Amino acid sequence: MPVGLFRVCLLVITAIVNHPLFFPKENGTVPENTEEMVQKMKEREESLRLEQLRLEQEIADQEATQKALEKAAVVVEGSKEEKVRWDLWTALSMVIFLLIELWRQDFQEGNWQDIGGEEDDMAVLGKAFKGVAFPDKAVLASFYEKRILGTTGDMARMREMVEGFADDLLEALRSVCNRDADMEVEDCMGVGSMYENWRVRKPFVCDLIVPFAPPEPYCFCCQTWCSGDSFPPDEQGYGTIKVCRADEDATGCICDKTKLGEDMLCLLHSQVSSARPSSEMEDLLCFKNTQYLDADQVMKWFQIAVTKAWNRISHKYEFDLSFSLLDSPGALKIKFKSGKSIAFNLTPVVQYENSDVYFISHFPRSSLAADIPSSTHWFLTFAVYERRFIQLVSKTLPANACHVSCLQILSFLHGKQCSLTGPSGLTNYHLKTVLLHLLQARPSQDWAPEKLEARLQDMLKFLEKCLHEKKLYHFFIGNGKVPAELGFPIIFQRAEPLNLFRPFVLRRDIYRKMVDTFHEMLRNMSALINEYTVHIPLAHTNGIRKE
Fold first, then answer.
1. Which CATH number belongs to the domain containing residue 131 in this structure?
2. Radius of gyration of the chain (CA)
3. pTM to 2 decimals?
4. I need a labelling partner for 102 at 20 to 30 A (CA). Which of 172, 464, 496, 542 fits?
């Protein structure tokens, strides 16, 4: 039994020892494992090759993208440089254009006066003169002698009578006013066509301006559109008048500009003097709740004061005095018992500093008042300097110079045309402005009496040019060539030129009417002049055709 067990155990041990899993033969499984490994290695190699191709493709794509970005950057940089060069050329072109435009405006404003000689006048007339028969010297001389001189002989006597009565009326006005509370009225001055000796159409109307000042201790502080304050373009030519206390203006105290505390007191002004009730400022003719002088309040006060003054002196005169126009508070009319009447305008004004420029409350017989922005805006009038300039230039002209005759004839023709076709935007002041420009541009000898025809052509030609360009500049504002003898304020000489035709730029209907009236006047000029001309031999009446 033990031997059998021993044999069995030995057999088991031998079987175990000889089992191939424990002691495999040298060439038993190697071939099979090698093939698998080779197959796996090939598969691995193939996958690695594919991965390498994929990576190479990605790298190529990245390089292509980088090159595209670099190329785009180069293109953008080039476009930027091109844009900079273009912007530079654009800016340079704009600068050149602005310089040319400034030169053109300067040429128009300053050198337009360099008009050619008489031999070139006919050649440069505009389209409006084509086919128009212009009266010759003999016809013009006869017309002026018969129609103009025959109607202006009574102007001197009328001026003398009106001035004397106005002085008496203003003296009575001072007596009825409260010297401590009402405005102080100064002596009147005559301005306009009646005092420049070129008014031709009846009824003759004298224009008188009356400066006034506030009672003590107040004063007027004037501001104009060219004094540095911001005024919109439609308010050029206007200004405002502020009513201030004289002591405040002199000391420059800021107690009125700064809100002081309840426990603080200004040592220069008491609480009584610094307080300005609304009623007090309204008594000083200011606009409600402001310190600015109100033109409407001034005209109401002036009208009431004139009425009181007339009631005081009416017993001295054998005529009646009344206000002739409701829309012109200063328009007065003297009515005699015989039925005759004399009209004149008495308009209150405020002096600008120490000059003869005045703020005017309204313009008699003018549509400009309707364009005033508000009743606290006052228009500036240079009528006194205009009169002085004409007087100054007249001293240098030949005897019996034709400058006034030109303006009289043109004013007569324009008035006649307006009576036929109705009023237009063109006024006698525009015609006078044309003459003032030509008086400054033309040498003295060109205004000899025998050159009336040529100078009248100059005025019509210049007016046609202004109508075409919609530009007629105020003679004094922006004019650096004003004679120093006039003592004209430098602030207005240095201001931007003021275009008198600017209101018509946007109002095309009025502008069209103005141009049509001018053309109609040219076409009817010969007929209007011949109507008032005595018979002249045919050899002297052939008109000159304007080609």
1. 1.10.1410.40
2. 48
3. 0.71
4. 464
